[in-house]
Amino acid sequence: MPTRTDPSSGAARPAHAIAVLLAAVLWGTTGTVAHFAPAGASPLAIGLATFGIGGLVLAAISLRRVLAVLRRRAHLGWLLAGAVGVVLYPSAYYPSMTLAGVAVGNVVALGSGPIFAALLEWAVDRRRPDARWAIATGVAVVGIVLLSLGGHGGAAADPSAAPVGVGLALLAGFGYALYAFAGARLIAGGASATGAMGALFLTGGLACLAWLAIVGLGPLVSLPGAATVAYLALVPMALAYLLFGYALRALTSSSATTLALAEPVVATLLAVLVVGERPTAVGWTGLAVVAVGIALLAVPAPSRKVTLSRPRVGSGYNQARPEPTHGGASEHDRPGPPHEAPR
């Protein structure tokens, strides 16, 4: 596995690879845990509560840097755009898994995020995607179409609503790409990595909580409901981000991205083994085709640099997640190594 030795980060050790794998496993549990939320709990409320609470926790970790970003008027436009993405992602992601199934919702959101990221780069930066991206995107789109045409099998409570679930998963992928792209622009504008992403999560998290006050908690106002939200906000969101940030201090982003592909594998295995989903032959084919597209996007393209916030697969340029602090802010805060990209 290629690694990087860097004076500011130190040599990569097995612990760094284990940290990425553990983060990917934690991300892969979100759909299954949400599936077992109290009966009648709104998936929208689950998503809003998760990102509302988790966003505040992540912002608190680097509060000084977050406040520095919020004070600069020049950051306002991208801060608001990114906050929209932060709200959009959970608002679409969790309902998508209810309508289309845990495996389908997760894989479609994962596979489409880098596609939308590259389209944003093309539209805003005039950075045209390369041929590899076009091929990978075409492959992923074929897989998504297969999933939309019935690959959900018995995973969807209402098969007629499954295509809507796929559409919501695509919307979630766009939301991820939007807040990640906005974070990259803030970092390029002089903000620290942890400050930029913390400010986005704080602003978007507060908006999520405001919307949650309108939607209502419903059955989440119970011990099982509170436990569900606490796990999703503190473990797959806050803890996993810290683990990934720790890993990026020594691993190359191409290595981290490849290791993070464990996420959709874990999500699919849990959907089948724990939730009891049984994708049809079309579904397995669609999942496999999307996985091939994701793998193609994970191949590093060393000529371009973009920074994103989650260990998703690259848009064609492989954007890197900014490095969260662990136990306090780092004096060597940086956007992270080039080339990698969340959902």
Automatic annotation (TrEMBL):
Residues 329-343 have a biased composition (Basic and acidic residues). InterPro entries: Diverse_Substrate_Transporter (IPR051258), EamA_dom (IPR000620), EmrE-like (IPR037185). It is found in: Cell membrane. It holds the Pfam family EamA. The chain crosses the membrane at residues 44-63, 75-93, 99-119, 131-149, 161-181, 193-214, 220-244, 256-275, 281-302. Belongs to the EamA transporter family. This is DME family drug/metabolite transporter. It comes from Agrococcus jenensis. The lineage of its organism: Bacteria, Bacillati, Actinomycetota, Actinomycetes, Micrococcales.
